[in-house]
Amino acid sequence: MGKGRAACCDKSKVKKGAWSCEEDLRLITFIQKHGHQNWRSLPKQAGLLRCGKSCRLRWINYLRPDLKRGNFTPQEEDTIIKLHQSFGNKWSKIASHLPGRTDNEIKNVWNTHLKKRQLIHSEAKLDDSSCAYNSPSSTSVLSHANTIIHEKEEAKRSCSSSYNINASSSSLSNLSQVEIISSPNIVDMDWIFQFNEESNNYLELTRVLQDDGIIEIPLESCDHVDIWDMLDIMDPPLQTGQWT
DNA sequence: AAGTGTTCCAACCGCCTTTAG
DNA sequence: CCTAAAGGCGGTTGGAACACT
């Protein structure tokens, strides 16, 4: 054993950066079937060239089925602000009060939106106390401004693409089929692919144009597809208790 | 239309804590 | 109790997407 802490994995042999659609599916399929008792050994068993920590992070922050996907509501944002006042940057503690939200997500929302808003608030409060006789009240102006900020952020975020996914899996056939149906206002096509557990590989991925038949494309080309909805309708994994 | 600046978030890094032997 | 391994956490960053000039 060398000096210091051993690396969690051999950095030269692991892939880094954004996860591909195939990697996501491998991870999902593996956890659905086997759970995640040991993150360190999981990548090898699942056939992933990733560090165990990376798999854990990907699952917890993005793939696990109990995640509440989508924008934070004003209520959730208020909760974060209040909890941050009591806990500070204890993101996991804050996340434990917001079911379906991850510490990473909350941290990002805080750093990108709420921190700024808090700053505006505290500055406005200073103005409010020095110009308390102004009408309409600074508080109502502030509240209005807050609503506008939130609406702008909502509009911006709602532009991101989303997909509806139908999934079916059968323990008898050793085959999982997932059909990704495009969002109606984005593109007019469906995606279908199958994972064969015997060969431990994907049999096919097809892009189905609604009018023009089927065009086969390689699996790697589906990197942009959001697949998390699939988890909502698949069988629960063999993991007991909480996801984290 | 092109170039530049800004925002946002997924993912990484490394430290701390917990657990198993 | 001690040690090493694994899990958990918070800070940071790379780069894609978007906004502005």
UniProtKB/TrEMBL annotation:
Location of the HTH myb-type domain: 11-63, 64-118
Domain Myb-like residue range list: 11-63, 64-114
Domain of life: Eukaryota
Biological process (GO), any one: green leaf volatile biosynthetic process
Transmembrane segments: none
Keyword line: DNA-binding, Nucleus, Repeat
GO terms for MF: transcription cis-regulatory region binding
CDD domains attached to this UniProt entry: SANT
GO CC aspect terms: nucleus
Protein name per the record: Uncharacterized protein
UniProt source species: Solanum verrucosum
